[in-house]
Every structure is written in C-alpha cells, then in structure tokens.
Amino acid sequence: MTQSVQPFGVRIRGTGSCVPERRLTNEDLSKLVDTNDEWIVQRTGIHERRVCDLSTEGTFTMARDALKNALDAAEMKGSDLDLIIVGTVTAEMTCPSVAARVGAALGAVPAAAFDLSAACCGFVYSINLAQALIQSGQFRSIGVVGAECMSSIVDYSDRTVSILFGDAAGAAILTRDPDPRIGCMYSTMGSDGSGWSSLYIPRRLQEVPVSDIDNPIALGHLRMNGKEVFRFAVTKFRDVIEDAMHKTGLTPESVGQVICHQSNIRIIESAREKLGLPHEKVYINIDRFGNSSAGSVGLCLDQLWRAGKIEKERPFVMVAFGGGLTWASGVWRV
Ligand code: UT7
Predict the structure, then answer these.
(1) Domain-located, residue 289
(2) pLDDT digits (tens, 9 = 90+) for 116-166
(3) Residue at a domain's end among 128, 155, 180
(4) CATH number at residue 196
(5) Are residues 214 and 170 part of one domain?
(6) In this structure, are residues 138 and 130 in contact, taking their beta carbons and an 8 Å threshold?
C-alpha cells in the first residue's frame, strides 16, 4: 500500500483504446457450447464481446493502436515517450515483450519497454507503477497499456470461460506536471498467490493442480474455477473500493467515476449496492465487450474520458482484481 508523497504531479495527457471489429454474440456461442443467451445475460450481464481475427490481429496490434490513439489525443509522438509498459498475460511471445514491439512500431526507440503480468489487474498495476516512476523523477513521459487477446487462450469448448472473455486494449499517456496536486492521490496493489489455481494458464502438465487432475486440460488455455473467483471477488472488490474512498475522504456524493474491472455484472453490482454508489458513477460496458482482463479498465477509462465524464473537480477511482490472485486500486485527480 502506498500513500503518495508528491514531488511532481502526474498528468493523464491522453487516453486511447482499440477493440477488434469482429463480434462474438451469445447466439454465436450457443452454437459452440451448451449455453444460451438468457443464462449468459443473467449470470454475467454480457450480450456480446469482441474477438480478434488471429491471422492479422492480436495483443500487439491492439496495444499498438490503443497507444497510438492515446498519443494522438495527447498531441504527442512515440519519440516523446521514455517508457512503455504493457499489462498483459497474452503476449504473443515471452521474448520480446509486446511493449518493445509497440515502441518500435510507434517510433519510441530508445524508450525503455516491458510487459507486466498481473492478469486482470494489468492496467491498474501498470498505471500505479508508471505514476510512481514519474514521481520519483526518473521518467517524464510514460505510455501505459492494458491489452489482452483472450480469444487466443480461451478454450471454446469450455463454457465457463468462453462466455466471459473478450479482446480489448486501453491506454493512457502520463507526463510529469509541475502542479503536485494533479495525479494519483492514493494507490494499492496486493496479491495472494495461495489462490493461484483458481485462474491459470498451464504450459506443462506438471503445473496442473491436484484439484484439476481429473478434468480435461488444454495446455496454453485459461482454466478458471468461476465460483472460487466469484467468492473472492465479491468481498475483495467492495473492500478495495471502500478502502480507496475512505483513505482519500471520498463519499458516494463527492467521488467522480468508479471504474471497475468488467469481470461480471453481478460482482460490480454487488459492490455498487453495498457502497451506496449511484448507477451513473459506476460505468458498465461488459454488456458489449465482455471481460477483457487487463484491457477492461483502460477501455472504460478511454470511453469515459472521450465522453467528457472524467471531471476536474471530482477524483475518480480505478479498481481491479484477477488471476494471481491480485488486486489493485488508484484514486486520481485530473
Ligand atoms: O476477471 C477475473 C476473472 N474471472 C471472474 O471474475 C469470473 C468470476 N466468476 C463468474 O463470473 C461466474 O462464476 C461464472 C459466470 C463463471 C459462472 O456463473 P455462476 O453463477 O457462478 O455459475 P455456476 O458455475 O455456479 O453454475 C451454475 C449452473 C450449473 O448447473 P447446475 O449444477 O446448477 O445444474 C452449471 O453447470 O449453471 C451451469 N452453467 C452453465 N449453463 C449454461 C455453467 N456455465 C454455463 C453456461 N451456460 N455457460
């Protein structure tokens, strides 16, 4: 947990996002697995999600295009960046990083570049880290991306995961600002690795936990114990938002937007109701984009930013949880 000392302010100069054109509807999925539109909508809030055409699209192309959109919004060029961080667990290759390829594609060489693995927390972990690096004085301009091509790791014969996930990328450009009141007011990042087997992508059979030994395993694909993740998420989500608001003195009236990882509408709604937050302060796009893991918070941020819903007077909160298990939050003033 960190409470910021603020030698510099950190400005979000621009945001961007990218989703593939291709839509995968509940109807489409019902032709692949034993499921139906009514069940998916009731249990998750999802109507459709976007999926890459894997012959031409993927994490790299979405991350590149999202960051390019954010640079354009910030009226900056790739060469203005001195670091790129991409939060993802679906990099095409473990080496090189997606971030290094994005940097080369956008003319950011010789900016530092690396990927960050924190599953659905990828964007919030990355932006928290980026702001701390700017505050430390070591970096001036950082491109932060959360990008996930979930369709490349979803087993479409597994109805638990195939209905939930979609592909997306969201990005933000952070720059050093002389006004120390601008930027991240508070952030947390945490993990509990003892819960890792609730959500994992096995590469080798040796890694498969005893609890899954009798189940069909598709190596390289996501395995999820939905019920366990759900149980963890319902309380963790509420606690993390409550902590962030409490530590910064925010109330349901004074907070701007609370931008939640789009995990499942029931998880988000449960936290919203318990915290007494009005509907209009908790943005939802899971109905159209599904759960895009590290892509989701950045995508929401960009959509809200472009719609003029991020207000100067009202700090906003970003919050996520996911595989690891991990969780993270950040409270920002723009
Ligand atoms: O992003 C972070 C990572 N992941 C998450 O946040 C996911 C958290 N978990 C969830 O969102 C939910 O657990 C799921 C959406 C994955 C599943 O919803 P659920 O309400 O927990 O369903 P369940 O697993 O308890 O299953 C209820 C019933 C079962 O049938 P019986 O045993 O009651 O007869 C399942 O076999 O629904 C059945 N079922 C389905 N039926 C139609 C499970 N998946 C499906 C399906 N279509 N896709």
Answers:
(1) yes
(2) 999 999 999 999 999 999 999 999 999 999 999 999 999 999 999 999 999
(3) 180
(4) 3.40.47.10
(5) no
(6) no
| Bond prior to 96 in cis (omega within 30° of 0) | yes
Q: Which residues contact 104 (CB under 8 A, 6 or more apart)?
A: none
Marked catalytic residue, from 18, 52, 120, 184: 120
Q: What is the pLDDT of residue 265?
A: 98
- Could you tell which of 230, 234, 236, 260 is best to mutate to test the pocket of ligand 1, judged by most ligand atoms within 8 Å of the CB? 230
Note whether 27 and 112 are same-domain residues.
yes
Q: Which domain holds residue 284?
A: 184-333
What total number of domains does the chain contain?
Answer: 2
97, part of any domain: yes
- Kindly give the distance from the C-alpha atom of residue 62 to the centroid of ligand 1, in angstroms, as a whole number: 29
Count the Cβ atoms, other than its own, within 10 Å of residue 234: 19
- Element containing residue 288 per DSSP (H, E): helix 286-289
- Which of 36, 43, 199 has most ligand 1 atoms within 8 Å of its beta carbon, as the pocket-test mutant? 43
- pTM greater than 0.90 (yes/no): yes
Residues 153 and 225 in one domain: no
pLDDT in tens, 166-216: 999 999 999 999 999 999 999 999 999 999 999 999 999 999 999 898 888
Instruction: Classify residue 245: in a domain, yes or no.
Output: yes
Active site residue 120: yes
Other C-beta atoms lying within 10 Å of the C-beta of residue 72: 13
